[in-house]
Design goal:
By secondary structure, the protein is α/β, with parallel strands linked by helices. The protein is built from 15 helices and 21 strands. The strands form 6 sheets. The protein has a 6-stranded mixed beta sheet with strand order 3-4-8-5-9-19, with helices on both faces. A 4-stranded mixed beta sheet has the order 18-11-10-20. The longest helix has 19 residues.
Length: about 500
């Protein structure tokens, strides 16, 4: 669909239009350039983030079907009220996307990105309504609290405050909320990249989900995602003669598939350590659990020790998955009738490849593992690999700010086992980083795509402060963040913050 937009609409009419979402609004702020920066009340900004997080979590954007047009309207009303220009577009009925830009100087633009859709939540297994944003003991429960609506809100309030406080900027800052990430992003970020390239005019830096911030056993760790294992989703189709269930043949499509999948399930692809993974483990080594410091510091040697690698897989499957290509068997289909042996049986498998792996070579290797010429392998989805440098202004700012707010936390460049929308932007040459500006208990991480997803109000306040400092440092003119290892409280800051 063509994006809806208009500019310089009288405020009363614009607000009415936004409430109906007849079109996105683009209200100029003619005095902004003439006004001195205002002082920012960080506490009030944190209060606002807590309130908006609850409002956002109460909008059900379960994908499928998504219904992100509802959250698109949520953001449209906010931008209309603030007088911030924005554009929106729907890739399909109900699949809304929205972006807004604050103009700055000539440096490459910065995007604050998150996705609006969430995975399903079965209320039967939750202690609260997944879409009620219930508060218990200072913790907000709701689907999307960790993945990734709260991140979107702390990005939003930082973006709004740049506008309200008239912060002098040396680059444009863009807030973007997209659909469909949980299903691959083809109705969201991927669609916007293809159909609205003007939204990324001049962009070279991007903040997205995909990082980590965790407290485990007294240790605190932030991880900034710089690359990902590459998803390669495949369908395996076995064929053979169909028959009646009462007369089993020596081989059938189903038995062929079962035997091939058993070979896959028991196969371990050869371990190896790519440079980005090696750098990640080396960064983790100083704070590694007892007995693992030396192993993390020299993963090239560790992966040659079968027992040590198996112990790592038992202790932390996510870290172990970074040392090899992997495939998980996730979906199976056979006959639709109990007494019919079908001519075809199918499986879908979720393979994740190391960033330097050639997918065609991997498919040939997989075929040898399955060892059955009657089974065909077809691609469902696959992305291209890319690594964002740790030598950019944005990465350095993220590292400094995280250390300033949590001096006792480690900060490492992360290789993610999962994928996010960042690959769409790395393909455009945009340095993209996944962050999680919160420090959550390790046991709460199970809420991501799990039951009782939740985040503490204290963490929302922390994330708001971190995001505000990152955005100001990267986009603000002449802004310096306090040095690493020092708290932001009581340090020299621009006069628009107190």
């Amino acid at each position: 669909m063509t994006p809806l937009s208009h500019r310089s609409v009288p405020r009363a009419i614009a607000l009415l239009a936004a409430s109906l979402l007849a079109s996105p609004l683009a209200l100029a702020h003619p005095l902004a350039a003439q006004q001195a920066p205002a002082r920012v009340d960080l506490s009030a900004l944190q209060d606002e983030a807590v309130r908006l997080t609850q409002e956002y979590l109460r909008i059900n954007t379960t994908d499928p079907p998504g219904n992100e047009d509802q959250t698109m309207r949520f953001f449209a009303r906010i931008f209309a009220k603030e007088g911030i220009p924005f554009d929106s577009a729907s890739s399909a009925p109900g699949r809304g996307n929205i972006w807004a830009r604050i103009k700055g100087g000539s440096q490459p633009a910065l995007v604050l990105l998150h996705h609006m859709d969430v995975v399903p939540a079965d209320p039967h297994y939750w202690s609260t309504d997944p879409f009620a944003a219930t508060v218990k003991d200072g913790v907000i429960y709701g689907r999307g609290a960790l993945d990734t609506k709260t991140l979107g809100i702390v990005e939003l309030v930082a973006f709004l405050e740049l506008h309200r406080a008239h912060v002098p900027l040396d680059r444009d800052v863009i807030f973007m909320a997209t659909a469909d990430e949980e299903a691959g992003g083809m109705y969201g970020a991927g669609w916007v990249v293809k159909n609205h390239p003007e939204a990324f005019r001049g962009v070279k830096l991007l903040i997205n989900e995909g990082g980590d911030g965790v407290i485990e056993g007294g240790r605190k760790e932030f991880a900034i995602e710089v690359t990902q294992k590459v998803p390669l989703w495949l369908q395996l189709t076995a064929t053979d003669e169909p028959s009646h269930g009462s007369t089993p043949h020596v081989t059938t499509s189903v038995t062929r598939l079962i035997r091939a999948l058993d070979r896959l399930a028991t196969h371990q692809f050869p371990p190896r350590v790519v440079p980005a993974v090696d750098a990640y483990f080396k960064a983790l080594a100083p704070d590694a659990p007892a007995g693992w410091k030396d192993a993390y510091a020299d993963m090239a040697a560790t992966v040659k020790d079968h027992d040590k690698l198996l112990a790592l897989q038992i202790r932390d499957p996510g870290l172990a998955a970074l040392t090899r290509n992997t495939c998980s068997i996730t979906m199976l289909t056979g006959s639709n009738k109990i007494n019919v042996v079908p001519p075809e049986a199918k499986a879908q498998i979720d393979c994740r490849l190391l960033p330097d792996q050639d997918p065609d070579a991997f498919i040939r290797e997989l075929g040898a593992v399955l060892d059955d010429p009657s089974i065909t392998i077809s691609r469902i989805m696959g992305f291209t690999p890319a690594v964002s440098s740790t030598e950019t202004p944005l990465y350095r700012a993220l590292e400094r700010v995280l250390r300033a707010h949590a001096p006792d936390a480690g900060v490492a460049p992360l290789v993610s086992t999962g994928f996010t929308d960042s690959h769409f932007f790395r393909d455009l040459g945009i340095d993209s980083y996944g962050i999680f500006p919160f420090l959550i208990p390790f046991e709460d991480e199970s809420g991501v795509h799990g039951n009782d997803e939740r985040i503490s109000i204290e963490n929302i306040r922390l994330g708001t402060a971190i995001m505000w400092d990152v955005v100001r440092e990267v986009a603000g003119k002449g802004v310096a963040t306090p040095g690493a290892g020092r708290s932001t409280r009581g340090t020299s800051l621009p006069d628009w913050r107190r």
